[in-house]
């Protein structure tokens, strides 16, 4: 039975640009009884590729003043890119989502609503994608929703959902925590241990997924976001605090410990307040320890906590049990720890001691030395002066957020659950043996797939397309941690009562276009060879009988030649290089007496241009007479002699003379076939004039 592919498209509409993602998975609903038990107990296997994504700048929020142009000027190239990888017959069954994040959250409500309406209208009128409901498919998602999608994606890629027995962290816990940080905000998502989950049940989200065995799996996850705690907003808040700490407004220069020594820069300003600090210059002092001390207050740890416990900025977060909660961090957590301060192999865990030592060494250098290192690509081709100027502050902010804000143990300094305690060497070996079981690890890809919250959203949709065992099963999605379906429940797939996508048509696992021409298909090469063979056979059969016969003979001749060359290499060398030793062949003419020589008798009046006075000779011989060079053979020679025999006729350009008539009478040829020519005999010609020669013809 054919296995159909299902597809899904998500447009991640961020503040700086929009990125389109295409995913696909196999619809196994009709073959579930034939699948092995290990596969039945898993979620749908999503596939994606780097070439299936495309990013376009600027972000959708930049079209707030011209919402009518967002379709043709922004969405069109992204949608066209997605359609290149989705079979035409599958487009109608393919859902499309446009989910906006930070940039759209900052717009006034009227502008935001107008943009969303234009996006939905454009997709509906210009494409055949499945778009059930505008409010569901085109929306601005909250920071908490974005963090939850990221948590789903990370745990799915790590295998925590499909193979929990391989990820036992103790106390019945098998999932991983998730950390994300961008320019404006930061998110955290994790499943608390059983004690904390019970104590803070009202603070958790209930997430429901469905596996191929048609049974539900439920997870209770805490997720929150900190607006203003992204690296760009944190830097702006830091500079404001730095200037305010002086108590003066007439300063022209201000020492900045978070900039490399000797670097001179203006402070950051808000877009709506340009020039408010343009009279001030920040001069780097390269004192990283002082930078750490001055960025710590930005965590706002002293803010009132209305619902204990709190981590930072007065935000309630259940207590994190680092015995079972192991975190992976993406986005800024990865870039700041790896783009300049590469920790070695990508699978190596975060080592606080090694990382802080490298940052301190880097930031203590003067800017001239750093600039020369950038030109020599000391830190790789991706590091430019802009990144190098910011990395000291970014590193200090990341360290403070991780260890003083969230409370991640300082691996390499503080006691952890690792056996013994040998800093970097121990954590490297532990990472190799145990995978992602350390308190924190920055990642960009897991199993060669980039970690993106969009995968979490698409996994929810794919999971929702699996029919439940019976009507008592609750739908796939997430909402408040209460029984049944809460009012704030967000469906993973189609909203009930608003229609469902049609079944996919024709996009089977044996789709020839995908098998033959898509580079990611493991059957591309053998499939293409089979396709070429079918084409060759079709062309061969379309040829006429004679052409097919000649083709077969040519193939046989080629095979014989290669066989002879393989058996006798000297034969090939003789053919290619020994040109002087080539065999020469004499013209073989029919003759009753094989070795009998003959003489051409003289023919008066027939002279060649080169020998006008020389008499020609004509001999009596069986065989074909060669036509005279330079004479029109088409009209001057008749191959029908008297009595129905073949012979040399009289040329129309020659005058009819007794001499020429003698030629006709003397050149009588026989019509015996070539097969009757003796194989080892020949007729030697003597004194053959250049004007007339005899040639054996069939």
Automatic annotation (TrEMBL):
Region spans: Disordered: 598-667
Database matches in InterPro entries: GDA1_CD39_NTPase (IPR000407)
Entries under Pfam families matching the protein: GDA1_CD39
Active-site annotation: 146
Membrane-spanning segments: 525-543
Record-level Gene Ontology MF annotations: ATP binding; GDP phosphatase activity; ribonucleoside triphosphate phosphatase activity; UDP phosphatase activity
Polar residues compositional bias, start-end: 648-660
Keywords: ATP-binding, Hydrolase, Membrane, Nucleotide-binding, Transmembrane, Transmembrane helix
GO cellular component labels: Golgi apparatus; membrane
An individual GO BP term: CTP metabolic process
Residues reported in the UniProt entry to bind ATP: 183-187
Family: Belongs to the GDA1/CD39 NTPase family.
PANTHER family for this protein: ADENOSINE/GUANOSINE DIPHOSPHATASE (PTHR11782), NUCLEOSIDE-DIPHOSPHATASE MIG-23 (PTHR11782:SF121)
The name this protein goes by in its record: Putative nucleoside diphosphatase
Organism name: Xylona heveae (strain CBS 132557 / TC161)
Lineage: Eukaryota, Fungi, Dikarya, Ascomycota, Pezizomycotina
């Amino acid at each position: 039975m054919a296995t159909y592919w299902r597809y899904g498209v998500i447009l991640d509409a961020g503040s700086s640009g929009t990125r389109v993602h295409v995913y696909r998975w196999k619809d196994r609903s009709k073959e579930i009884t034939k699948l092995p038990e290990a596969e039945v107990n898993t979620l749908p296997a999503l596939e994606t590729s780097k070439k299936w994504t495309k990013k376009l700048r600027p972000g959708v929020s930049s079209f707030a003043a011209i919402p009518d142009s967002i379709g043709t000027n922004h969405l069109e190239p992204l949608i066209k890119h997605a359609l290149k990888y989705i079979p035409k017959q599958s487009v109608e069954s393919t859902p499309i989502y446009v989910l906006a994040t930070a940039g759209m959250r900052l717009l006034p409500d009227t502008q935001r609503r107008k943009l969303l309406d234009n996006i939905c209208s454009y997709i509906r009128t210009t494409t055949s994608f499945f778009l059930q409901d505008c409010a569901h498919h085109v929306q601005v998602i909250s920071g908490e929703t974005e963090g939850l999608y990221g948590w789903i994606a990370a745990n799915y890629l790590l295998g925590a959902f499909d193979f929990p027995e391989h990820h036992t962290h103790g106390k019945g816990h098998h999932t991983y925590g998730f950390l994300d940080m961008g320019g404006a905000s930061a998110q955290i998502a994790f499943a608390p241990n059983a004690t904390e989950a019970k104590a803070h049940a009202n603070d958790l989200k209930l997430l429901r997924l469905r596996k191929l065995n048609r049974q539900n799996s439920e997870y209770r996850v805490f997720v929150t976001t900190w607006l203003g705690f992204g690296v760009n907003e944190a830097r702006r808040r830091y500079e404001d605090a730095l200037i305010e700490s002086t108590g003066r407004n007439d300063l022209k220069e201000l020492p900045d410990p978070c900039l490399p020594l000797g670097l001179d820069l203006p402070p950051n300003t808000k877009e709506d307040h340009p020039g408010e600090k343009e009279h001030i210059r920040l001069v780097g002092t390269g004192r990283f320890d002082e930078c750490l001390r001055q960025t710590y207050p930005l965590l706002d740890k002293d803010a009132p906590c209305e619902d204990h416990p709190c981590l930072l900025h007065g935000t309630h977060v259940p207590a994190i049990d680092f015995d079972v909660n192991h975190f992976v961090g993406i986005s800024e957590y990865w870039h700041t720890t790896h783009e300049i301060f590469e920790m070695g192999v990508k699978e190596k865990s975060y080592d606080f001691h090694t990382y802080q030592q490298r940052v301190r060494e880097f930031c203590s250098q003067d800017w001239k030395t750093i600039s020369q290192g950038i030109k020599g690509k000391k830190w790789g081709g991706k590091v430019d002066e802009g990144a190098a100027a910011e990395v000291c502050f970014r590193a200090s902010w990341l360290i403070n957020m991780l260890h003083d804000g969230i409370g991640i143990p300082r691996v390499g300094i503080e006691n952890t659950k690792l056996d013994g305690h040998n800093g970097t060497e121990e954590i490297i070996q532990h990472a190799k043996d145990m995978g992602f079981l350390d308190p924190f690890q920055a990642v960009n890809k897991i199993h060669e797939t980039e970690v993106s919250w969009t995968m979490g959203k698409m996994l929810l949709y794919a999971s929702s397309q699996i029919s439940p065992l019976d009507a008592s099963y609750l739908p796939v999605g997430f909402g408040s941690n209460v029984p049944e379906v809460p009012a704030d429940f967000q469906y993973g797939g189609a909203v009930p009562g608003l229609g469902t996508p049609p079944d996919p048509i024709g996009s089977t696992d044996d789709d020839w276009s995908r098998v033959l021409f898509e580079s990611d298909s493991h059957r591309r090469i053998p499939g293409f060879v089979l396709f070429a063979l079918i084409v060759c056979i079709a062309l061969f059969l379309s040829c006429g009988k004679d052409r097919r016969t000649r083709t077969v003979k040519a193939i046989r001749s080629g095979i014989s030649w290669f066989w002879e060359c393989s058996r006798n290499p000297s034969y090939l060398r003789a053919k290619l290089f020994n040109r002087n030793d080539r065999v020469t062949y004499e013209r073989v003419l029919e003759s009753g007496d094989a070795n009998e020589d003959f003489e051409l008798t003289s023919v008066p009046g027939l002279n060649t241009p080169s020998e006008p006075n020389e008499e020609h000779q004509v001999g009596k011989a069986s065989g074909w007479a060669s036509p005279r060079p330079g004479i029109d053979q088409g009209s001057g020679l008749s191959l029908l002699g008297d009595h129905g025999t073949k012979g040399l006729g009289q040329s129309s350009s020659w005058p009819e003379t007794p001499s020429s008539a003698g030629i006709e009478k003397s050149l009588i040829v026989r019509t015996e076939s070539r097969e009757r020519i003796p194989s080892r005999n020949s007729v030697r010609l003597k004194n053959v004039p250049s004007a007339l020669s005899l040639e054996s013809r069939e």
